[in-house]
Amino acid sequence: MKEDIQWYEFIIINWTQVVFILGVIGYIIKLFIDWDIRKKEISYYKIQESKLLEAKDFFKSYQSLRIALELFYNQTRFGKHSDDIFNNIRNDIRQNYIDFEYKCMTLKLFVKATDIKTIDKILITCETIRKNIETWHIYKDTDSKPQDYIDLSQIRKDKFEKDLPNLIKIIETSLRDSYNLN
Prior knowledge:
Elements: H1 7-13, H2 15-78, H3 83-108, H4 113-139, H5 152-178
């Protein structure tokens, strides 16, 4: 009668077959891992590409809104004070603001929480500029001005030249960092 073979003796006797089977199993595992990594890599690149396109649209929309706000400011400060002119400018600002707010919402999907707060500050600053110019129109000829009344030159100095460029710079820097461009 044949004696029972221990497991280690079986491996020693059939080592070539065992190595072959382990090699095949290892190769199948490697194929699965490579496929999973490749799938994640493709997803990552698609997300980065989408983020870049959204960032481009965000900056384009920001420029349109800023130009409309500056036109409103310049027309208020230096131009004719016609209701038709101002109504056209207000409509343009409204359309640009809606577009910009949409672009902000989509860009928020791709950025960090701190950048989301910065984007919200940009939106608030643009709306504040519009409201301050509107307030100036309402109270320009009266002596009783509200407490939050801001002179036009102050709007230009604080909002257009200081606040907005600083906030946009924060977003630009963050996007550069996310693409390792620094």
